[in-house]
Write a structure and sequence with these properties.
- The structure is a single chain.
- This protein has 543 residues and is α+β, with helices and mostly antiparallel strands.
- Helix content is 50%, strand content 13%.
- The protein has 19 helices and 11 strands.
- Strands 3, 4, 5, 6, 7, 8 and 9 form a 7-stranded mixed beta sheet that branches. The protein has a two-stranded antiparallel sheet with strand order 1-2.
- A hairpin with a 2-residue loop joins strand 6 and strand 7.
- The chain is globular.
- Flavin-adenine dinucleotide binds next to strand 3, strand 5, helix 13 and helix 14.
- Flavin-adenine dinucleotide (FAD) binds next to strand 3, strand 5, helix 13 and helix 14.
C-alpha cells in the first residue's frame, strides 16, 4: 500500500507538532525485551517470529486489523428461503488475519516443531498479534489449546489432530473431512452459571455410537470453528463432548446460533449464544470427568490470557512513547518533560514484569514432561494471568492519557486496546476464580508452593529487599491462606515471580526500581510516582 502523502500546508494553518504517522511497526526489532526473551528461550524460532512480526506489523495487516474491527461479523441464521444455515460472515480482513496467524504456526507450532521452545514461540505470537488485532487470537488460541485435551481419546485425536495442526486456514463452512485446515472452539458457559460449571444444564443422550445434546451455551466464541469442546450432563455428571459443526453424514449439526453478543471490545471476533437442538456429539474422556478433561484446554488458553495483556500493554506504551517522542509542549519534547518520562518509566515496569512472567510460564509448558515444571506451570499460569490482567487496564488508560485528546479518538489504536484490556481477566477464569484455583492447587499439590519458592531462590542474593519480601511472604502464609486473603496472596506471589525474573534477566535499573516500587512500597497510587532519583529516562528508553 502506498503511504499517504498528506498536505501539511492548509489554507488556515500549517499542521505541525503532530508526530509522523507510523505506517509499519517494528514489533520485534524495536522490542528489545521480547528479543532478549526469545534469544534465551526460543532461539530456534527467532527467524520465524521475525518474519511473522514483519508481516503483521506491516501496513497491510495494520489496515486489516482496523477493518476487521470496524466491520464486525454478521450473523446469518437463515438463507433467503428460510432454511437454517447458522453461519457468521466476517470482513475479508478477518480471514486475512486468520490466514497469517495460522500460517505462522500460531496454533500448530508448539505441537509440531522439532526444535525446543515451541510454547515460548507461540506465547510470543500471542503477544505480537494481540498488538494488531486481538479478536482473531481467540479461535487460534482455542485451536492450540484443544490439542492436549484431545489426548484422552486416541481415536478422536487421530481424527482431528492433523486438521487442527494444519497451517492452512480454510474458512469454508463445509464438513471437516473436506477441509485443508480446522479450528476448534470451546463452549462451557451457560446462563445460570459460567464459573460454576457443575450448574450446567445441557444434557446428553446416547444415540448409536454418539450422543445428542440438548440445551444452550451463553457464550460460544468463534462459532464458525469446525468443532467445539463442550460440557453436557450424563447421569454420572458433567462430561466433555466434541461437537462438530457437521454431522458424520454431511448434514449441518443442529447448533443454532441465537444471536451474537454486542461486546465492549474484541469486536472482530464473533461471540455467540447457541442452542443444541439434538446436536450430534462424541464423548471425550470419561463420563462425569468432563470438567477435568476440558480443564486441560483451559490450562493452555490461560497461557494466552496471561500473555495477551503483556501485548496490549506493549502496544499502548509503544504508541505513548512514539507520541511523546514526536510531540513537544512548553518548549520540550514530551518525552523529556520529567513527569512524562516518569509516567512512561513506571508503566514500562508493569509491561516488562508481565512479559517476563508470561514467557517463564510458556517455558514451563515447553518442559511439561518434567513433573516439577508441570506443577510449577499449574500455579504460575494462574498467577501471571491474574496479575498481568489486573495491571493491563490501568496501564492502557495511562498510556492513552499520554497522547492527550488524540488517544481518545478511534483513529488511534488506544480505544481498541482500552476496550480489549478487561477481557482476558474475565474469560478462562475471572479474578476470584483464578484465586480459588490457586488455593485448590495448593490443597491438591502442596509441593507446588515449594516448587514456586525454589524458583524464587534462583534470584536470591540479587536484591536484599526482594530476599526480605520472600521471607516475609513465606512467614505470613506459613499456616495457609484463607479465601479473604487469596487475592493479596496471589498478587504477592505474582509480583515476586515478576521481580525474580527481572532480577535474573533484566538490568539492575529495571529490577531495582521494580522491587523498590512493587515490593518495597516506595510508590504512589498512580503511575509516575517512582522513588526520588530514579533514572526514568533510562527506563522509558526501553519502550
Ligand atoms: C468476549 C467473551 C468471550 C467468551 N467466550 C467464551 C467461549 O467461547 N466459551 C465459553 O465457554 N465461555 C466464554 N466466555 C465466558 C467466560 O468464560 C465467562 O463469562 C467467565 O468464565 C465467567 O462466568 P460468568 O460470566 O458466568 O460469571 P460468574 O461465574 O457468574 O461470575 C461472576 C463474578 O463472580 C465471581 N465469582 C464466581 N464464583 C465466586 C466465588 N465462589 N467466590 C468469589 N467470587 C466468585 C467471578 O470471579 C466473577 O467476577 C466468554 C466471555 C466473554 C466476555
Amino acid at each position: 500500500m502506498e503511504p499517504l502523502k498528506p498536505r501539511a500546508e492548509l489554507e488556515t494553518h500549517t499542521v505541525g507538532n503532530q508526530p509522523e504517522p507510523r505506517v509499519s511497526l517494528g514489533l520485534l526489532d524495536e522490542d528489545v525485551l521480547l528479543r532478549a526473551e526469545l534469544e534465551r528461550l526460543a532461539p530456534a524460532h527467532l527467524g520465524q517470529l521475525g518474519r511473522f512480526a514483519g508481516v503483521i506489523g506491516g501496513p497491510e495487516s495494520i489496515e486489516d486489523g482496523r477493518l476487521a474491527n470496524r466491520f464486525p461479523p454478521e450473523l446469518v441464521t437463515f438463507d433467503r428461503t428460510g432454511r437454517r444455515v447458522d453461519e457468521v460472515r466476517f470482513h475479508p480482513s478477518y480471514y486475512a488475519m486468520m490466514e497469517r496467524g495460522l500460517a505462522a504456526g500460531y496454533s500448530a507450532l508448539p505441537w509440531t516443531a522439532a526444535e525446543p521452545g515451541g510454547h515460548a514461540a507461540h506465547a510470543a505470537m500471542v503477544y505480537l498479534l494481540t498488538q494488531i488485532e486481538p479478536g482473531v487470537c481467540c479461535p487460534m488460541t482455542m485451536t492450540y489449546a484443544a490439542i492436549p485435551a484431545l489426548d484422552v481419546d486416541a481415536e478422536l485425536a487421530a481424527l482431528w489432530r492433523p486438521g487442527l495442526l494444519s497451517t492452512t486456514y480454510d474458512g469454508r463452512s463445509v464438513p471437516a473431512t473436506q477441509k485443508t485446515g480446522l479450528t476448534m472452539g470451546m463452549a462451557m458457559t451457560e446462563k445460570q452459571g459460567g464459573s460454576d460449571l457443575r450448574a450446567n444444564t445441557t444434557r446428553a443422550e446416547r444415540d448409536g455410537n454418539g450422543f445428542r445434546l440438548f440445551g444452550h451455551k451463553w457464550f460460544c466464541s468463534a462459532p464458525m470453528c469446525d468443532a467445539f469442546l463442550t460440557l453436557a450432563q450424563l447421569p454420572k455428571g458433567p462430561t466433555c463432548f466434541l461437537v462438530p459443526r457437521w454431522t458424520p453424514d454431511g448434514e449441518r449439526n443442529p447448533i443454532h446460533l441465537m444471536r451474537l453478543k454486542d461486546k465492549l471490545g474484541n469486536r472482530a471476533n464473533a461471540s455467540a449464544e447457541i442452542e443444541y437442538h439434538g446436536a450430534w456429539a462424541e464423548r471425550l474422556g470419561e463420563p462425569g470427568r468432563g470438567i477435568a478433561t476440558i480443564l486441560e484446554m483451559v490450562h493452555h488458553t490461560r497461557l494466552d490470557t496471561a500473555m495477551a495483556p503483556a501485548g496490549l500493554m506493549r502496544r499502548a506504551l509503544s504508541e505513548a512513547a512514539w507520541w511523546a517522542r514526536g510531540r513537544s509542549a512548553f518548549g520540550k519534547q514530551l518525552i523529556d518533560q520529567p513527569m512524562m518520562t516518569a509516567v512512561l518509566a513506571d508503566l514500562a515496569l508493569d509491561w516488562m514484569g508481565a512479559l517476563a512472567a508470561g514467557m517463564r510460564v510458556a517455558t514451563a509448558f515447553d518442559h511439561s514432561t518434567d513433573p516439577a515444571e508441570r506443577t510449577f506451570a499449574r500455579l504460575a499460569v494462574a498467577l501471571a494471568k491474574y496479575w498481568s490482567n489486573k495491571r493491563c487496564g490501568p496501564v492502557v488508560l495511562e498510556a492513552m492519557e499520554c497522547l492527550g485528546g488524540s488517544g481518545f479518538v478511534e483513529e488511534s489504536p488506544l480505544p481498541l486496546l482500552y476496550r480489549e484490556a478487561p477481557l482476558n481477566a474475565i474469560w478462562e477464569g475471572s479474578g476470584n476464580i483464578i484465586c480459588l484455583d490457586v488455593l485448590r492447587t495448593l490443597e491438591r499439590t502442596p509441593e507446588a508452593l515449594e516448587l514456586f519458592y525454589q524458583e524464587l531462590v534462583r534470584a536470591q542474593g540479587g536484591n536484599r529487599s526482594f530476599d526480605l519480601a520472600v521471607t516475609q511472604t513465606k512467614d505470613r502464609y506459613a499456616a495457609g491462606v484463607s479465601e479473604p486473603e487469596a487475592r493479596r496472596f496471589v498478587e504477592t506471589l505474582a509480583l515476586l515471580l515478576q521481580a525474580s525474573l527481572l532480577i535474573r534477566h533484566a538490568s539492575p535499573l529495571v529490577s531495582e526500581t521494580f522491587v523498590a516500587t512493587r515490593l518495597d512500597g516506595d510508590w504512589g497510587r498512580t503511575a509516575g510516582t517512582l522513588p526520588k532519583g530514579t533514572d526514568s529516562a533510562g527506563l522509558a528508553a526501553l519502550i
